[in-house]
Amino acid sequence: MGEFENRIENFDQVYRNYKETGTYFYLQEVEKLNGARVQISGKEYVMFSSYSYLGLLQHPEIDAFAKEAVDRFGTGTHGVRVLAGTTSLHVELEKKIADFMKVEDSIAYSSGFIANVASIASLLGRHDIVITDKLCHASIVDGCLLAQAKFQRFKHNDLKDLENQLIRAEKDGCKGKLVIVDAVYSMDGDVCPLPETLEICNKYDAWLMVDEAHSLGVLGETGRGLAEYFGMDPREIHLYSGSLSKTIPAVGGYVAGDKKTINYFRHNARGFVFSAALPPAAVAAAIKSFEIIDTERWRLKQVRENIDYFIKNLNQIGFDTLNTQSCVIPIIIGQEEPTLQLTGLLHRDGMFVSPILPPAVPVNTCRLRANVIASHTKEDLDFALNLLEKHGKALGIIGGENSASYSV
Question: What are phi and psi of 275, to 5 degrees?
């Protein structure tokens, strides 16, 4: 048996073990959707793995605008954006994103993953350096690996480590210096200390790129992300990237910044130049979503109330939620076996939540990642809290003198 066959066979053995023991919780088929509730294999669950943070999925105005786009342009385009695939909707979306982010321009890619990979790889050269937070998303890591630049990572939110690496980069004669951070870190839910990070980048003439995938629509007074959250001028940041398939219920990704840089990406980012254009329905859905975020501000208020309520009561029960300040709420379990046991009991009783295991997170930090959304009612949150407390105590994950029942 060859190397590839061995590699695949080793994975298949692990996969079959999870399936046979009933601890495989991924790729489950959703049959119906109704707000924060889904139907899987004929059974209803309260969904705690959704990225629809503001509850915009199935919004009637968004759906109607997407259907109109199909009637107008069809289900696809004539090809890549640079040649025949750009419609008036694509142009409108990119202007909408730029206006929302309060920068000059933006470029829409076929996915958030491609937005990071293509932009990072096209910007950097072999005499440059890119430095990312250790917990940055996989798409950022892959973009850095694809680029020809030197690639370094600094300890999570450790600005002294970042500064030391920038000092070394200057000593090494690196020409271009790019620092990349997540606004909200997708496994821990905490935020980047933007003002201090930008200050260090400016000190060493480095560009700063912020990935807003999990912060768009959630952070800041009007949901415009990390710069607004810290009361900063968004134009101080060189580049933003983000997703059109989380808070925005469509598909795709974007990079936003000044006009000259965005125009550079339109003609040099291979993931844009050589990828088919986003389908018109998805583009229209994204356009309308940005409008709804501004006209239905109650959604932002609701999701923040839900976040505060859920975190407060999880902590009172005895669960560690790290330093999350977002919709992404890690419920730290530690070892793999109790994490999977707890997941199985929660799924059995109607709470859909995802277990996160190494290598996605460090060893001994296995967790449930519960995403709280605006569509959750107080009854939904209480339902989940009751189950987590009941099964957490039964498995010995929580309990004892320092654990208290949550308040309702």
Answer: -110, 145
